[in-house]
Write a structure and sequence with these properties.
8-stranded mixed β-sheet; 15% strand; alpha/beta
Length: 349
């Protein structure tokens, strides 16, 4: 099964890379986030060559590889410098490059050091980067730790603690053991780890995805993650998930499921629990009926920025007809997902 899945993903990826144009500009914005309290965060997305795993086929849900670029490292650095200045005074800087920060094919080590020099001139508490486990080693972590004055945090896409799901539903190309080794190494150097968990990979129904997310969060925290970020699947162009979605064989998670996961997780752990769903309320993203989507999205964002469970508890009190459809789906998952997706689409209009 995994071989067929990998070949299908690769075929879709190759077509997508031909049809999409590379990105030429660094993108940045301000948002709210949480460290020890609510902080002002700046987000910078660097248009590097793209994730090496993604270029080889990659994960079933990921379309970020299409945001890759062919511009020089020098130009990326210049744009990063301008973006950092534009963000102004921030407490928390999150750097994304749609791949691995420590993959030297994406970011040159000399450029990383120059970027850190710019950051060191700012009054920033913490800097977050992202990486696959295979690029995290003693050399990369210790050098980054020594070069950076603010705290360092590494986001790692665990997605699920279930190796079968990660391999056969996500095609992640890494194992729970790989994640564990990376976390232990980061902890050895006093580097924070944010574990990214995927809500509703393909081939899991709604109830299964809720339970898997909760189990995975507990496992990630026990392994040593300092924070957990839940990422509900959205339907990116030219991905295997889109292939299933077009065939009515996949639907993104309900926003109600996100509320359920965050509330149950919050009640059982002390580490920060985050969720900033992309495309929330859109047909390709996590959504409900359309009437309550914005209110739930705002509640999730407010909770993520404050860790105040009151926001989640208030969301459970929302009286919307689609909530009963969601509850029925959890009880009757033996029906096809397409059946419930049709109902969701009908009550949106």
């Amino acid at each position: 099964m995994r071989r067929v899945l990998a070949e299908t993903i690769k075929s879709i990826r190759e077509k997508g890379l031909i049809k999409t144009e590379s990105k030429k500009k660094v993108i940045s914005w301000l948002e709210r986030d949480y460290l020890d309290s609510e902080v002002k965060a700046g987000v910078v997305i660097l248009p590097t060559r793209g994730c090496s795993w993604g270029l080889a086929g990659g994960c079933t849900m990921c379309g970020y590889v299409y945001e890759s670029s062919d511009i020089s490292h020098k130009e990326i650095y210049n744009q990063f410098r301008d973006a950092l200045e534009k963000l102004g005074d921030i407490d928390y800087l999150k750097i994304f490059n749609s791949g691995s920060f420590f993959d030297h094919r994406e970011l040159d080590p000399i450029m990383i050091e120059k970027m850190f020099n710019l950051i060191n001139q700012k009054d920033i508490q913490r800097v977050q980067v992202e990486s696959r486990p295979e690029f995290l080693n003693k050399t990369s972590i210790s050098k980054a730790k020594d070069s950076l004055l603010p705290e360092l945090e590494v986001g790692i896409g665990l997605e699920t603690s279930n190796d079968y799901i990660r391999s056969n539903c996500i095609n992640k190309g890494s194992t729970l053991q790989d994640f564990t080794i990376a976390v232990n190494l980061c902890n050895l150097y006093d580097v924070f780890v944010k574990a990214y968990l995927l809500i509703k990979p393909p081939f899991l129904n709604e109830k299964e995805s809720i339970e898997d997310a909760l189990t995975s969060a507990n496992d990630a925290i026990n392994i040593g993650s300092s924070r957990v970020s839940f990422n509900p699947t959205s339907v990116h162009r030219y991905t295997f998930v889109e292939y299933l979605w077009n065939r009515h064989e996949y639907s993104p998670p309900w926003l109600w499921s996100l509320v359920e996961i965050l509330l149950r997780c919050r009640n059982n752990t002390a580490v920060p629990i985050l969720c900033h769903p992309t495309r929330a309320g859109k047909i390709r993203g996590p959504h409900n009926c359309g009437k309550c989507d914005n209110r739930i999205y705002n509640g999730l964002v407010n909770f993520s920025a404050t860790q105040d469970s009151t926001y989640l508890e208030d969301l459970t009190k929302i009286n919307c007809g689609c909530k009963e459809v969601w509850k029925s789906q959890l009880k009757m998952e033996q029906f096809s997902q397409g059946y419930f997706q049709d109902i969701r689409n009908q009550i949106r209009h």
